[in-house]
Write a structure and sequence with these properties.
This protein has 335 residues and is α/β, with parallel strands linked by helices. It is built from twelve helices and 13 strands. Helices cover 43% and strands 16% of the residues. A seven-stranded parallel sheet has the order 3-2-1-4-5-6-11, sandwiched between helices. Bound molecules: nicotinamide-adenine-dinucleotide and thymidine-5'-diphospho-beta-D-xylose. The site of thymidine-5'-diphospho-beta-D-xylose has 16 residues, from helix 6 and strand 8.
């Protein structure tokens, strides 16, 4: 099978490509990534020379740049390329619409024209909006996105659905909860807090710190994507999540404890506008249909992840440069 993985230089994409090459050495994996601030080829340095791996630097919204690849013949597309950070989407929504909506539509159109046999859209639980204190998101929960990021992901999901209904393109949509693990860009909660704690800098907790996320180890997400790619029923949506609800303060306190840092580093800062209160996933469909269950336990997984970042401070420092510094200055002042 020849698979195009978009966004493969990012957090989940690099973990997914490593998973694919380790499990299916006979398949061909082509990583299409524009290398934005979030894309770091170093994330895949260990597989760069794998004979089944190829990297193509291209923007998914630029049809001219990616059409030659489809013209070569492609069996499947796993679309992970996206602008992925909610806070950035509040500052620059247009970029999110371009990459997440137009980029996805460009890939769908080429997939249709060149007869791709499976298109997997990697979406997010954020398209469902927010939950109150109880309940879980199922695949039937209405889409009620609250940020420009989640609205752009929801827009992409609707186009994926339309390409299935209108043109019969064999698609799946996956909606996963928050991932944690190695190679996550240090603008996201867990690596940002680890980075600041290691430098004895304040840890900016939004609002009251009681917003809840449902955490899943990135490799468990990758295994779910692989199952959907190979066995997903065409046209179906699959929710993915590990039943690991934690509020942000709990996550931050675990990080401080593991790094032997004081809780006095916690700073409550202004809340994120439109901040979703709680996400929690009902993953019973993918469990029943495809036999997926998470293999990593949260308590040991999060601790191993914290130690990975502690042991890869050079990676963190190389990643935190240029564009990222400007963004951080705008977002948080100079802390
Ligand atoms: P990331 O920001 O770490 O990586 C995104 C990658 O996409 C980067 O390598 C970037 O260079 C690339 N990219 C951005 N714009 C592009 C463009 N126009 N053309 C080609 N490449 C482009 O993101 P991530 O956290 O790895 O998320 C990957 C996907 O998974 C996204 O679609 C995201 O919506 C989804 N998702 C993420 C999570 C999570 O917790 N991180 C959870 C559920 C779903
Ligand atoms: O500095 C911070 N302080 C803080 O309190 C940051 C960066 C975040 N937070 C809070 C906001 C959220 O309640 O932590 C929680 C997690 O924030 P993010 O890491 O920004 O993730 P989230 O907004 O939940 O979105 C993530 O999960 C779903 C990914 O970034 C998305 O790409 C994915 O779709």
């Amino acid at each position: 099978m020849k698979v195009v993985v978009t966004g493969g230089a990012g957090f989940i994409g690099s973990n997914f490509i490593r998973y694919m090459l380790a499990h299916y050495p006979q398949d061909e994996v082509i990583n299409v990534d524009a290398l934005t601030y979030a894309g770091n080829p170093e994330n895949l340095a260990d597989v760069e020379s794998h004979p089944a791996y190829r990297f193509v630097k291209a923007d998914i919204a630029d049809r001219t740049a990616i059409e030659p690849l489809f013209a070569e013949g492609v069996d499947a597309v796993v679309n992970l390329a996206a602008e992925s950070h909610v806070d950035r989407s509040i500052m620059q929504p247009d970029l999110f619409v371009r990459t997440n909506v137009l980029g996805t539509q460009t890939l769908l159109e080429l997939s249709r024209q060149y007869g791709v046999r499976k298109f997997v859209q990697v979406s997010t639980d954020e398209v469902y909006g927010t939950l109150g204190d109880t309940g879980l998101f199922t695949e039937h929960t209405p889409l009620r996105p609250n940020s420009p990021y989640s609205a752009s992901k929801a827009g992409a999901d609707l186009l994926v659905r339309a390409y299935y209904e209108t043109y019969g393109l064999p698609v799946n949509i996956t909606r996963c909860s928050n991932n944690y693990g190695p190679y996550q860009f240090p603008e996201k909660l867990i690596p940002l807090m680890i980075h600041n704690a290691l430098q004895d800098k304040p840890l900016p907790v939004y609002g009251d710190g009681l917003n809840v996320r449902d955490w899943l180890y990135v490799e468990d997400h990758c295994r779910a994507l692989d199952l959907v790619l190979r066995q997903g029923r065409d046209g179906e949506v699959y929710n993915i999540g590990g039943h690991n609800e934690r509020n942000n303060l709990q996550v931050v306190r675990t990080i401080l404890a593991e790094l032997n840092k004081p809780e006095s580093l916690i700073r409550f800062v202004a809340d994120r506008p439109g901040h979703d209160r709680r996400y929690a996933i009902d993953a019973s469909k993918i469990r029943k249909e495809l036999g997926w269950t998470p293999q990593y336990d949260y308590e040991s997984g999060i601790r191993a992840t914290i130690r990975w970042y502690r042991d890869h401070t050079e990676w963190m420092e190389r990643v935190i440069s240029g564009d990222y510094r400007q963004y951080m200055a705008k977002q948080y002042g100079d802390r």
